[in-house]
SusD/RagB family nutrient-binding outer membrane lipoprotein (Pontibacter locisalis), 488 residues
Amino acid sequence: MKTKNIFSLFAAFGLLFSVSSCSDDKLDEIDTNPNAPQDVSISLLMPQVTLNIPTAVHGVDLAWYSSVFVRHTAGVHAQLQQADRRSDLENPTLVNNVWNNIFAGVLPDLNLIILKGSEGGTEPGKPIHVGIAKVLKAYTISVATDAWGRVPYSEAGLGSENRQPVFDQQQQIYMEMFELLDEAIANLQEQGPTPGNTDLIYSGNAQKWIRAAYSLKARYWMRLTNVNDAAAQNALDAAAQGFRNAADNFTFNMYVSTAIGEHPWFQEANDRGHHAVSERFIETLENLNDPRLLALVAPVPGKGEIIGAPNGTNTNDQAGNLFSDVRSPLVPGLAPPYVLEATSPMPLMTYDELKFIQAEAYLRLGRLQEAFTAYREGIRAAMNRQTELSDAVITAYLNNPALPQTPAALNLDEIIRQKWIAYFYFQPFEAYNDWRRTGFPTFIADHPISAPPLRFPYPLSERDANAVNVPDVNIYTNGVWWDDGTED
């Protein structure tokens, strides 16, 4: 795809991203082609969904709040500072945008691709397009149910045909997700045209989408360790057919250096400056003698040293003069390499996460040597992805006595801590999911005010339009099903 065509996609997305709240009629209008809505082609829908999911679903509000919750960052200004002080987190407008993007934008588009490209649709004979849409649908609904618990699924994405969808139980949604991914894998193994460059993630490579589907299955099975005795083995079975190496990473890498085409974390840092790197993140890496510290975190301008921001305080540092930020060209006087740039990649799932999933699964099954091998490979892969450190430096870190040096010394805390480091800076929502599931890293709950909430509040838009179906929950005491085994 030529750059000018990508720009038009970002222009359309910029309008959606700027919406804070809308009426149902307005959302229907936004999600509809006013000229010929029933005739929107798959070739136009595919780039739209492969942009919107990493950006509007994965990359914005849920991630920014989760980053503060898991203490990757500290909130040092405005809403994120309030969130870090556990203020106003039950506000139903907190993450309206993400909910609206999922249920009024992304899911209807994915459903349309699946309908049009399947037998009986208006563009039949496109199984690869359909398979990609099913992988993305499973991913999108997983974000929704992991954030809110019970959400619309069986009646979701129907737009004006059903303004009051029922909220399905999370247990049922998870089983549907696995079925959806199995269907996707079968579709992707069929013969048919590929979307090519209209697929902004894998450029239509069906084999990479298949490996992404299996890797996501491994992630979702591991999510169920508290509620399903077969979860660890099922995760391993899926992982065996997942990513082979970092070249298979499920990553969006098409951001551009324009005002509406930039990486959303870069836009947030440049326009708002709500985050600084948490002192807990910095202390953790210092205690481990982790060489990633200098590669990931910038010194404070004018002070020449790395200073972490304490979580839960009233100290405002929007200007970045007191505390360290992630390495970025936005930090005055800082030379590359950078972690965060306008065109930085956005990882949705990576090979290193898959290795940590395998490490945990093997550990739970008592296969300690295999767990230890996967754990070390996960660290190596994460360090290679996050930094430009040499193999010799990475090997020295792996041999560091601050890390477990034998299979018998490995435990779940060590695995999740390294996974938490690997999720910095762009995948804090997954770290939040791991903390809710395992309680690790334990210092996430050791907050000067209180532990994070156990879920996000249902949005005002849904409470207003679908109050009869919205569950009545307390975000601090009601965990989601895979967390505590109960539905709300």
In short: The chain has 20 helices and four strands.
